[in-house]
Amino acid sequence: MLRNKTIVLGITGSIAAYKAAEIASQLTQAGAKVNVIMTEEAIQFISPVTFRAITGRPVVTEMFDLASEFSIEHVSLAEAADIVVVAPATANIIAKLAAGIADDMLCCTVLATKAPVVIAPAMETNMYNNPITQDNLAKLEAHDFVIIGPAMGWLASGKEGLGRLADIRDIIGNICQVLGRGGELAGRHIVVTAGGTQEPIDPVRYISNRSSGKMGYALAEGARDRGAKVTLVTAPTSLPEPVGVDVIQVGTAQEMRQAVENVTLRADALIMAAAVADYRPIKAAKDKIKKGKVGLTLELEGTPDILGTVKGNFIKVGFAAESSNLVENAKGKLKQKGLALIVANDITASDSGFGTDTNRVTIIDREGKIDSLPLLRKREVADKVLDRVAKLLPKPKSRRPNKI
Ligand code: CTP
Q1: Cis peptide before 88 (omega within 30 of 0)
Q2: pLDDT for 17-70, tens place per residue?
Q3: CATH architecture entry for 184-391
Q4: Annotated catalytic residue within 4, 209, 325, 402
Q5: Contact predicate 59/36, CB 8 Å
């Protein structure tokens, strides 16, 4: 998503300016070209040298820099930008932008750009809550600026409150989402499931599987980055919730089925990456089962086949976790569950399947076309799946981008 994107990162005079180094670093590592503009106040907090080293690019700190590579700087920076991000943004820069003041390089660039602008405020709670700041932010929002945060937490004053710079994960996630607006899945609603369902045995124990949820989360983020509205129905995982995605947490197969039925009413596609438990105890014990002298027999019953039974006007994509006869078994599931595509993975390989960051999959479509992909990162697999999903979706009547 961020590869080859040109991002202007504006940094203003907040104690949170040091966090902008991490933002610049993550964007650069993801392949973006990051042009940093620092206000005079920002360089009191952190040196431009830091950003020069992190981004490998010149850092703009002055309105008129005769040695700069940019011709008329604010114009060329503004024109080249795919997105402008101001993080951290002080009350002062927010006020200046709301008033249309252009007395420094950052303001000039923001006013001159046609690219989307993301603002991540950071300031003391009272400054943030002040009606003047609130009015200024509302004005920027009305002009389509995307405001992220601020978050609650520890502030430079030593107090706790609202005003902390939003989490870096939040900022980067929002940047990806904004860059993806108007992408090939704009105006679409994609439902993704993830994780391994948990079927209770008693109040402390359950039956589950080794699913990490990584594949489903990568699909949710990938669909978001193509402009889709995404709902992620997830069984418990240790992963943080993806930014810019509606997340519904569920426990059991039955809860997942209910949630999927509810959210697919207006969906364009359902991608079931969840590892749904096939069996559950007939009755979960109300009290903790005590250790006995002899063994314990659990009586199990089948869970509902969500993908096989859910109905609606959307395309269905399944995953097939196989330890043998990969293609044959996957083809059987594709037919039996009425799928448009099935993504089969061999779970016996140590670098593919449950818990790993990579997957080696074979994608099979309804026409029987078999595409065996090499070992890829799960996000890359997600992108390959989404390429196909985008092609399979019927042409929409109107394509309005989803509002963020
Ligand atoms: N699936 C589902 N509901 C279930 C079981 C599976 O919706 N109760 C979905 C999975 O999310 C996946 C696809 O069906 O997209 C295939 O799942 P898999 O576990 O590979 O196959 P099963 O249908 O469970 O068959 P088997 O366990 O016999 O291989």
Answers
A1: yes
A2: 999 999 999 999 999 999 999 999 999 999 999 999 999 999 999 766 655 665
A3: 3-Layer(aba) Sandwich (3.40)
A4: 209
A5: yes
